[in-house]
Amino acid sequence: MIKILVADDHTMFADGIESILADQKELKVVGKCYDGAAIFPFLEKEDVDVLLLDVNLPIMNGIDVCKKLGEISSNVKVLALTMHNEESFVTEILKFGALGYILKNTGKNELINAIKRVAQGESYFSKDVTQTIMKSLVSPSKKKEGAKNENLPKISRREQEVLDLIVKEFTTQEIADQLFISLKTVESHRRSLLTKLNVRNTAGLVRVAIENQLLTVEQ
DSSP character for 8? Predict the structure, then answer.
């Protein structure tokens, strides 16, 4: 059972999420918070696996919530659920530990899939969010800034391929199938990337890839 906390300042939307997930035996909404500050007292009383978090919340916004969760070493996994599809929001909330970012116009099946993926420690992004990330990588301003960090360790061709597919939301099995390698080899490359780029999870890999222009973008 995946226990979910919904944090959104629109009561009808939060109630709608609870209603949408009501028929899912593997998922259970255990609470709803209508401002960012209310999340922390709730987490002290209840076990939560996934926090569905709006970016714009009163008292404490979603980015600050993520930052504080990291400071208190909370094990709850964060999936941003918002109407904002701007690169700055995506990169900031990933920077502070969110594993996924989906938009409020997402359908039921994608929402369920995203929750399950994030609960397993994987990253997940709406298609529109992925496109926003990719566009930012080839924007003229980014190229002028020459964003690649020369101090980062060099990654191999195969690690580059794995990183590209991680950002494109491929699962470990899908990466193995795409590159004709074993699951064990995919995990080995993933662990190597985590170590080289000094991050803790796949969301960290995505963030560093975006910030440092590490992706091979097809134009």
Answer: -
136 close to 109: Cβ distance less than 8 angstroms? no
3-class DSSP state of 60: coil
Give the residue numbers spanning the domain of 183.
Answer: 141-211
**pLDDT of amino acid 168:** 80
* Residue indicated by tokens 């969010």: 129
Same domain for 68 and 162? no
Is pTM beyond 0.90? Reply is no
* Tokens read off for 208: 């560093």
CB-based contact 72:26 (threshold 8 Å) = no
C-alpha distances (whole Å) from 6 to each of 38, 93, 144, 164 are 11, 17, 40, 31
Query: For 38, phi and psi rounded to 5 degrees?
Result: -70, -15
